[in-house]
Structure formats: structure tokens, C-alpha cells
Amino acid sequence: MSVPLGDFSHRQFLEEYWQKNPCLIRQAITNFDPMLDADDLAGLACEEMVESRLVTGSVDASDWSVSHGPFSDADFSALPEENWTLLVQDVEKHYPPLLALMQHFSFIPNWRLDDLMLSYAVTGGSVGPHIDQYDVFLLQAQGTRRWQITRTFEPALRKECPLNVLQQFTAEQEWVLEPGDMLYLPPNVAHLGIALEPGMTYSIGSRAPSAADLIQGLGEWLAFSDDEGGRYSDPDLQAVIRAGEIDGNALQGLHKLLLATIEENQDLNHYLVAFMSRYRLAHEPAAAAASIRTVDLLAALQDGSKLFRNPWTRLTWIENDKDARLYATGQPYDCSTWLAEALCEWEQPRIRAELLDQSDLNTLAELINNGHFLLTPVEL
Ligand code: SIN
Ligand code: CO
After folding, report:
1. Is the dihedral of CA 58, 61, 67, 73 positive or negative?
2. What strand order describes the sheet that includes 331-335?
3. How remote is the CA of residue 147 from the centroid of ligand 2, in Å?
4. Is the C-beta atom of 193 inside 6 A of ligand 1?
5. pLDDT tens track for 105-128
6. Labelling 119: which of 58, 276, 334, 339 has CA 20 to 30 A away?
């Protein structure tokens, strides 16, 4: 798979740019084939399961409005000639051939990547000047778009505006991106993209949990496990002095409980790995219609059947007594480390049947039965 970082090695890019500096890479992907066009994108945006937005308005007038899909043909035919953008999330999951594009970015750990968002904009189309909390690779797929950025800006947002648009924005740098060009932006760099002609931008977005997400998730994890994580106790309780007050001693006890729940929790690493396997996932795979028996699975693999990962399945793993505990959208599976790695590497994992012991075979069958992988028959 070719590297989309121009002259930079992965190491150089990560050291000098990742989370630090914006970086423009001309012709990151040469002869880039977008695979989808504006009509395909509009078609996706009409589907119930697809998360999409239509943003209308122009930077000059700041007259932004947003509507959310699913849309109908009538919504699209009512649009003006200029100044609108259609944005669709998770397109690589709805249209799996685009997973090949995500594979270019596999030098970044899979749990840090979120989704592929496609935006189609007509001339003047923009979502206004804003900041994002996540790193993003903006790959121009079709047409030209001008991107302006600045690192010095007032964070105040425009009031009474349906979008998070900065009140003020003065560009420090700007580029016009042509198909195949890519702009990497770390979080918190203000940016403004305006389509100079109708075209598409493919955004490879990352994800990073907030402390609030992690703590909320930990609470749910503990609530569902046998061990609630301890409970407040006060064997040295003193008689009430001021009604209603929670005094310093009590607060210290509550702090201690909270911190011990995090710092002394034997399961914390497992929680974190499980959490990241379902974080920000819009849908989860449904169980397969029929279960496969391990003997049939082994025979199918020996005959050359292929495995395909469900695009909605997220896999993360952690070493566990020399083996692996693999998490598939929050659910744990035990297997060998080589199987965990092979299953995560590529959405069509190549598994050599002769390497599978009975326990790995059981895990693989379970993953298939729970809808995380599809086993396709051998092509004739
Ligand atoms: C867009 O593609 O129009 C918006 C992407 C972004 O600014 O994050
Ligand atoms: Co943005």
C-alpha cells in the first residue's frame, strides 16, 4: 500500500507534525480514484442508517443553516446553485471498498482513527471557520477547495448560529487543494475551507476520548461488573456540627474512593481497551443469522474461504497472560496474540487454517456467530 505522506516517512511525520503542526502534502495520492461521486453521496444521504448533514450559507453572509438526513430527492432539487455542502459520516463502513483508502493510514493505531467523512460542496460551499478537537487528514478528491488556517484566533463562537463557527477568523496561511492533495491539521487549528468549484473532500478523522467519556464509561463498566469498585465508608464519623455540610474529612474520603477506583483497579487496562473498541461507534454489528460449527469453519478455511470484517466492528486487544484478550465492540474474546494481530491488520484477514488451535478456532467461530466477521465461500 503506498504511503500518503509525500517525502516524509511515517516516523518523520509523527515526530514533526502529528498533534503538533499542520502539513500540506501535494499529490499525497497520485491518480486518486474517489470511487464515489456526488450522486452516490446524495444517495447515501437518503438512507436511514446514514448520518448526514446539509449545510447552507456563505462565508460572506454568515447565513448558516444545517439540516440532518435522511434526505429525499426533493431536498436536493430544492438546493440553490451555490453555497451548500453535503457531509456524510462513516462512508467507509457504508461503502466498504473505501476501507482500502483507510488502509493508507494504518501507521496510526486503529483505535485512534474514527471514520471517513465525505463532503461534497458546490461553489462557495463551506461549513465556516471553526476548530475541531481531533486530528484530521483532508484529502481533496475532486474539484478544488481553498483551505485557510490560523493558530492565533479568538475562541468566541458566532452567537445564534446552528454551527460552531468562529466569530472572527484571519488566515495565516492558505492553499488551494487539487485532487490528490492532502492537508493534515492537528486539533485546535482554526480552519476554513471554501469550494472554488463543485468538488469532494475526504476527511480521515481521528478520535481521542475526553476524560468525561472515560470516567462515564468506567462508571458503566463498574456498574455492570460484579465489583462496584468499593463504597464510601466512615468508621471515624463525628457528630454533625453544621447541618448539610460535607466537611473536609468526608471529602477526603470521597476523593480517596474515587482515585482508588481508578488507580487500584486491577481491570482498568481491560476497561480502557474495551472502551476504545466501541467509542463513538454509530452502529454495532448484529449476530449472524445462522451459527457456524468449528469443524465447518476449519474445513471452509482449508478450502480457501475468506473472512471479511464487519465494517462496524472495531477490534482492539491487550496482552493477557502471554495470550490476547481481544475486544470486539466492547465484548471480550480470548485468543493467541498472532490471531488477534492478524484479525486487526486488515479487513480481510488472511488466516492460515493450520495455525489455528482449538481455542483460536472456537474464538473465531464465536466472532463470526456474533456478526463480527463474514465467511465467504470459495470463489469458483
Ligand atoms: C468539510 O469537509 O467541508 C469540512 C471538514 C472540516 O473542516 O473538518
Ligand atoms: Co474542520
Report:
1. negative
2. 315-320, 323-328, 331-335
3. 10
4. yes
5. 999 999 999 999 999 999 999 999
6. 276
- Vertex 21: Cα angle to 15 and 22 (nearest 5): 125
Please tell me the pTM assigned to this model: 0.94
> Minimal CA–CA distance to 350: which of 311, 304, 285?
304
At 75, which amino acid appears?
D
* CB within 8 Å of 226: residues ≥ 6 apart: none
Count of residues making up the chain: 380
- Tens of pLDDT, residues 277-319: 999 999 999 999 999 999 999 999 999 999 999 999 999 999 9
Q: Which residue's CA lies nearest to atom 4 of ligand 1?
A: 127
7 contacts 32 by C-beta, under 8 angstroms: no
User: What is the arithmetic mean of pLDDT over 137-148?
Assistant: 98
Q: Is the CB of 206 under 6 A from ligand 1?
A: no
Beta bridge partners of 157: 166
Q: If residue 192 lies in a helix (H) or strand (E), which one and from where to where? A: strand 190-195
136 CB near ligand 1 (under 6 Å): yes
In short, whether 119's Cβ falls inside 6 Å of ligand 1 is yes
Residue type at position 346: W
